TrEMBL record:
<feature type="transmembrane region" description="Helical">
    <location>
        <begin position="247"/>
        <end position="270"/>
    </location>
</feature>
<feature type="transmembrane region" description="Helical">
    <location>
        <begin position="282"/>
        <end position="302"/>
    </location>
</feature>
<keyword id="KW-1133">Transmembrane helix</keyword>
<keyword id="KW-0813">Transport</keyword>
<dbReference type="Pfam" id="PF08449">
    <property type="entry name" value="UAA"/>
</dbReference>
<feature type="transmembrane region" description="Helical">
    <location>
        <begin position="309"/>
        <end position="331"/>
    </location>
</feature>
<feature type="transmembrane region" description="Helical">
    <location>
        <begin position="206"/>
        <end position="227"/>
    </location>
</feature>
<dbReference type="GO" id="GO:0000139">
    <property type="term" value="C:Golgi membrane"/>
</dbReference>
<dbReference type="GO" id="GO:0046964">
    <property type="term" value="F:3'-phosphoadenosine 5'-phosphosulfate transmembrane transporter activity"/>
</dbReference>
<keyword id="KW-0812">Transmembrane</keyword>
<feature type="transmembrane region" description="Helical">
    <location>
        <begin position="158"/>
        <end position="175"/>
    </location>
</feature>
<feature type="transmembrane region" description="Helical">
    <location>
        <begin position="96"/>
        <end position="119"/>
    </location>
</feature>
<feature type="transmembrane region" description="Helical">
    <location>
        <begin position="337"/>
        <end position="354"/>
    </location>
</feature>
<dbReference type="GO" id="GO:0005789">
    <property type="term" value="C:endoplasmic reticulum membrane"/>
</dbReference>
<comment type="similarity">
    <text>Belongs to the nucleotide-sugar transporter family. SLC35B subfamily.</text>
</comment>
<feature type="transmembrane region" description="Helical">
    <location>
        <begin position="131"/>
        <end position="152"/>
    </location>
</feature>
<keyword id="KW-0472">Membrane</keyword>
Length: 386
């Protein structure tokens, strides 16, 4: 009230006096905090709710949630891998891996647009320049991965995709100057040796082995190692949604691939071939894209509810199952070297997960086991004496 009287006094009619009065007096700012539902964006209104394919998993118990998520991951991604290999088993389709990626990006863009229409907040939060970079990396990782199947067996491609840690560590050392502990180095060595052993086995037993496929999947692996960090940073910085990320990154990537195929004259032969086999190409590609889109939804739900550690364990088991089903459903040469090299890669994945969660996973040391055995021996001797 005193401040209001001072502001109405004649002395405050002059600008200098008014400035002096306000600078010498305290200012009190009143902030009204809106309710939680008003402050939050509509598509993130329920933070605790986990909705997958229109189903609210928060209503179920934890074991039921885990069963639903694991069932979704295995079901959709096993079908995804089966359809991907089935498309490339069509006679004459192997040179059209980039066209398959174009069709896949088109379907993903449509799915993302449909999902974006189901939420109230349709604004684009992430800048267009960021999406252009993400789209380029997405084209690299998915296009090169699909194209590599024209040169490699599907199990070899899956083994390579399991070893994302290697390019991540190499980039961390040379770009950011990071230092890794002995567990990370051991994980990278196990993965590298497993990859080399698996690739040598593939080159020995597969008559159509081509080094081009190894180069393509390695480049896809490098792009895949980068894109995760870029997407995570962009979504956290600008608070973007998953549906927005899918829509804009895949639609821009669709334009990239369409422009590249047009410039290299690779579009017309692919369209001509697929028009002769519409069910084996477009039909399978639709189901292939749909199952991949649904599968990633369950993976994200698994990460949100149970954490990355359990999600990595489940997805690793899914990839192992994909390799087994590939050998069962598609005729290809087999050797036990595939088994030992695959187990070596799995050991590297476990070491990587253990390194990131050393505070949660406490493995018993040799010294601890020896002390425990000595204590049990002493207690057994004491009981016998008594």
């Amino acid at each position: 009230e005193k401040q209001a009287e001072d502001s109405n006094s004649p002395e405050c009619s002059e600008p200098g006096a008014m400035d002096l009065k306000f600078t010498s007096s305290r200012k009190y700012i009143s902030i009204s905090v809106p309710s939680k539902s008003q402050a939050m964006s509509p598509h993130i209104k329920s933070v605790d709710d986990v909705v997958v394919l229109g189903m609210n998993l928060s209503k179920f118990s934890k074991p039921t949630q885990f069963f639903i998520c694991v069932s979704g991951v295995f079901m959709f991604y096993l079908i995804y891998g089966y359809l991907q290999e089935l498309i490339f088993s069509v006679e004459g389709f192997k040179p059209f891996g980039w066209y398959l990626t174009l069709v896949q990006f088109g379907f993903y863009s449509i799915f993302g647009l449909i999902e974006l229409q189901l939420i109230q907040d349709k604004r684009r939060r992430i800048p267009g320049k960021t999406y252009m970079i993400i789209a380029f990396l997405t084209v690299g990782t998915m296009g090169l991965s699909n194209t590599s199947l024209g040169y490699l067996n599907y199990p070899t491609q899956v083994i390579f995709k399991c070893c994302k840690l290697i390019p991540v560590m190499i980039g961390g050392v040379f770009i950011q100057g990071k230092r890794y502990n002995i567990v990370d180095v051991s994980a990278a060595l196990c993965m590298s040796l497993g990859l080399i052993w698996f690739t040598l086995a593939d080159s020995t037993v597969a008559p159509n082995f081509n080094l081009t496929g190894v180069i393509l999947i390695s480049l896809a692996l490098c792009a895949d190692a980068v894109i995760g960090n870029v997407q995570e940073k962009a979504m956290k910085l600008h608070n973007g949604s998953n549906s927005e990320m899918v829509l804009y990154s895949y639609s821009i990537g669709f334009v990239y691939i369409l422009f590249g195929l047009t410039c290299t004259s690779g579009l017309s032969p692919a369209v001509t071939f697929c028009s002769k086999h519409p069910v084996q190409t477009y039909g399978y590609a639709f189901l292939f894209s749909l199952t991949g889109y649904f599968g990633i939804s369950f993976v994200l739900a698994l990460i949100k509810i149970f954490g990355a550690l359990l999600a990595v364990t489940v997805t690793t088991g899914r990839k192992a199952m994909s390799i087994v089903l590939s050998f069962l459903f598609f005729a290809k040469p087999f050797t036990l070297q595939y088994v030992w090299s695959g187990l070596l890669v799995v050991l590297g994945i476990f070491l990587n997960v253990y390194s990131k969660n050393m505070d949660k996973i406490k493995l018993p040391s040799l010294l601890g086991l020896w002390k425990k055995s000595m204590e049990e021996r002493k207690s057994r001797t004491l009981s016998q004496t008594v």
